[in-house]
From TrEMBL:
This is Protein-export membrane protein SecF. Forms a complex with SecD. Part of the essential Sec protein translocation apparatus which comprises SecA, SecYEG and auxiliary proteins SecDF. Other proteins may also be involved. The gene is secF. It comes from the Bacteria. Keywords: Cell membrane, Membrane, Protein transport, Translocation, Transmembrane, Transmembrane helix, Transport. InterPro entries: SecD/SecF_arch_bac (IPR022813), SecD/SecF_bac (IPR022645), SecD/SecF_CS (IPR022646), SecD_SecF_C (IPR048634), SecD_SecF_C_bact (IPR055344), SecF_bac (IPR005665). It comes from Lujinxingia litoralis.
Amino acid sequence: MKMLQIYPYDAQNDIIGKRKIAGIVSLVLMVASLVLLVTVGPKWGIDFRGGTELIIKVDPSVTDDEVREAAASIGLADATVQRYGSEDEGRFMVQTQEVSVVDEVKVAEIRTELEALGDLDAALWNEEQPDRMDLRFSQLKDIAQIEQAVMAAGLSRVTVEATGQEQEAFYTVRFQDLQNIIREGFASFFGDKFSASGGLERLETVGPRAGEQLRNSGLVSIIVALLAILIYIWFRFDIRYSPGAVGALIHDVTIALGLFVILQIEISLPIIAALLTIVGYSLNDTIVLFDRIREDLDRAGTKPLVQVVNEAMNETLSRTLITSLTTLLAVMMIAIIGTGLIQDFAVALIIGIIIGTYSSVFIASPLMIKMDGYLKERRKAQELIDKANAADGAAQ
């Protein structure tokens, strides 16, 4: 069985002695990641920046360039196209910033045309319901006239209905929805190679405001998770261990985000889930090590803390490496076989497992030693202050 050991259980290597080198490497990587995040910025997915993502199924003979050409002919702005699945499936994922046939620019043109009718009091439109506009005139208007005014802004298939009471000049304009335009556009471009009834397999639209809310919620969820972990470690162990555990997690998330920027991995809701999984996985390794340190400290006597921590690292490193490698093997299979979001999720986990294993050894424990030293120094200083105060009191 010894030949199956990745790291000898009875090893006495000076792992903690490498903490300064590891600290410098981590600091450089964290600074580089922060610079990348500030200068280049993460690649936000549709979930967070708003837009439309669709999966289409076409004849397997259709190429990526032909799908891009079709998307451009429909008028999808900045459409990105990538194959979704194997080549014989004929599936493509198309992402575009378009969420509706109407945007703020088009709304301004429509308002101009409607104002030409006279008596327009309000023309209300918002990004959350982009396929409708509510109108209020001071005088009743002919519905056909309103339709013509809206279509004069370059739109087609517009319907207008009166929505107020008999003498109220309230109207609702409904624009053709984006899904129909996309379906009909691909059907027209590809002909028999695209089925209008089943070719558009999935379409998800997120408005810019909803995307911003989701992005803020995702960031808050990570911060709340880190705070909860800080409190949990404080109660589970003591204050010495909390900064080390949380510092290692911040280290992991920061470097992982930096690598996402380099690899151009989109930050989407599944990737936020992957980041939270990374946090949990890294914390698991850290807690195993902290548990062993605490057990060893109970019977360490006068043995220095650094020596106790080093021995605990040697005792748990084999378990940590075996757990990480077996998990990596499973996740790597998903990364190789999977496609799309599943593949990105697996790649994010691979990055997190590697960084998390490293940080539990080289970041969490050294920070715990630093915190222990700080608390001892503060305790000594407080004792000196108490003695000085007691001496002053006796002198008076």
